[in-house]
Amino acid sequence: MADESTVTIRASFSTREAADLAVEHLVQQQCISRPDIFVQPTTGENTSGSRPSGGDVSHENGTRNDGAFCGDIEVSVDIASSQIAVVQRVFGDVGAIRVSKG
Fold it and tell me: Cys staple from 96: which of 11, 35, 52, 78, with CB 3.0 to 4.6 Å?
């Protein structure tokens, strides 16, 4: 009998772009229900990540300075234990800084 207990996997990302991509891959490619995925800052501050990317970069003047770069962004997901490896792989593929279980 397979162990289908629920576990939480957490990953930290330095950009909002990478965190959003992780969520998109989990929902669209792995069919994980969106209500089982949570996004929050790793610090108590509002943040767009710890470094600029995507819309945070102006092609005319370089990096914008009006974004809140106050720390990394955490994506956590509640999944069946049989999905641990695939979720860890998705997080790694999109640039997670740290991935942990629990």
Answer: 11
d(CA 11, CA 45): 18
What pTM value is reported for the model?
0.77
Task: Please check whether residue 11 is in contact with residue 101, taking contact to mean a CB–CB distance below 8 angstroms.
Answer: no
Q: Which residues, listed in sequence order, are joined to residue 13 by a DSSP beta bridge?
A: 73
Report the candidate in 43, 39, 13, 14 with the shortest Cα–Cα distance to residue 27.
39
Report, at the CATH architecture level, how domain 6-101 is classified: 2-Layer Sandwich (3.30)
Question: Cα separation of 41 and 8, whole Å?
Answer: 17
Both tokens assigned to 101:
């279980």
User: Which residues touch 9 (CB under 8 Å, ≥6 apart)?
Assistant: 76, 77, 79, 84, 87, 88, 91, 99, 100, 101
- Please tell me the number of Cα atoms within 13 Å of 4 on its side-chain side: 2
